[in-house]
Amino acid sequence: MATDILSCHPAHCGHLTGFLGVIVMGLISFLCLPVSGAENEAELTCDLDPLLDIPAVYGLTPEALEAQYPAPANMKKTPFFKWLTQSKDRAIFQRRPYTNISVDLSLLKGSVPVEEVVVDFSNGKPSTFYFSC
To answer: Where are the alpha helices (DSSP H) in 8-129?
Structure first.
């Protein structure tokens, strides 16, 4: 039945095609709208191999972690990880730290994708690493 309405001649059912035309054009316009902020989406890569560099990783401090993974030039703070405590004794790396940023976390020269990493510090030194792949 809908096919009959859409294929009817405008002279015979102009009021229907006009109304349907407005509805269809409205739907098309709505579906073609960009997702809010999609054009500002940032896709970054983050090599986590330094966290596997034994014995060098035992010298990692919270300050050294910040220096190892600094904010890109166009960002105010690093999107690669965030501190979970004010004392900077726990950090988390996530694939999706913000709704408009995705980070390709990987190990072993990019061959192993990682979902999340938690780094715990004790007395300013790394104590535990949790890798979720």
So the answer is: 10-31, 62-68
